[in-house]
Amino acid sequence: MDDERTITDREGRRYRLRPIRPDDADALQRAYDRMDLRDRRARLFAPIPALSDAFAEQFCTIDESREFCFVLESDDEPGELLGGCRLMGDAAARVGEYSVSLRSDLKGRGLGRRLMEILLAEADARGFETVYGIILADNAAMIALVRQLGFDVERDPDDWQLVRATRQRAA
Ligand SMILES: CC(C)(COP(=O)(O)OP(=O)(O)OC[C@H]1O[C@@H](n2cnc3c(N)ncnc32)[C@H](O)[C@@H]1OP(=O)(O)O)[C@@H](O)C(=O)NCCC(=O)NCCS
Question: What is the per-residue pLDDT across 57-109, written as a single tens digit (0 to 9) for each?
């Protein structure tokens, strides 16, 4: 996905999805501020109170050869980011770790599923063979979602607080 596309939630509300840009760092910090503690922990595995400038800038800088990140916007909130999805590949761009998150007030509208579907389609189009995610074992929503999307889910053998969800590209 090189430019912008429109997606809709379960109630038919429309949003725009586009690749992240370096100048998104401030909006990314504001979006993070609007995630509740539980969601911050689910996303970063610790309830980190705020995204530092350095962290936000790093999130907005993409290595195009093996990584992509799309962010969600709405005409109702110009200049704000509502959520996004990212795939970070290995050096060969064959195995990638996904991440996905939404502002807490926008959960439960079907947007997480749309973001994951688009991420997987993009990963397939770019030739990734394996997409995986590390998920907190108590993140029931994310675990249910990846199961619905056909991922295999297994306990992390080294950390009882984590599960690993893996999806191989269909042959
Ligand atoms: C995980 C997350 C992306 C899901 O997005 P969402 O838009 O709320 O989810 P959707 O509305 O698309 O729901 C998709 C599926 O997820 C599951 N799900 C969503 N909310 C759920 C909940 N509260 N409890 C259990 N399952 C839930 C359901 O299986 C649902 O399918 P269904 O509607 O057919 O039942 C979102 O909750 C989020 O951003 N959480 C915080 C960050 C995070 O956990 N990121 C993942 C890190 S690995």
Answer: 999 999 999 999 999 999 999 999 999 999 999 999 999 999 999 999 999 99
Q: For residues 65 and 86, is the Cβ–Cβ distance under 8 A? A: no
User: How does the average pLDDT of the chain come out, rounded?
Assistant: 96
CA dihedral 144, 162, 111, 120 (to 10 degrees): -90
47 pocket-lining for ligand 1 (C-beta < 6 Å):
no
Residue 128 · residue 89 · CB < 8 Å: yes
Domain with 16, as residue range(s), is: 5-168
**Beta partners for residue 133, in sequence order:** 165
For 14, 15, 46, 85, 143, the CA distances from 6, given in Å and listed in that order, are 7, 6, 32, 15, 26
Q: Provide the number of structural domains found in the chain.
A: 1
Q: Report the CATH number at residue 86.
A: 3.40.630.30
Q: Which atom of ligand 1 is nearest to the CA of 134?
A: 48
Write the residue with the smallest CA distance to atom 21 of ligand 1. Answer: 141
Query: Looking at ligand 1, which residue's alpha carbon is closest to its atom 37?
Result: 107
Neighbours of 50 (CB within 10 A): 11
pTM of this structure: 0.96
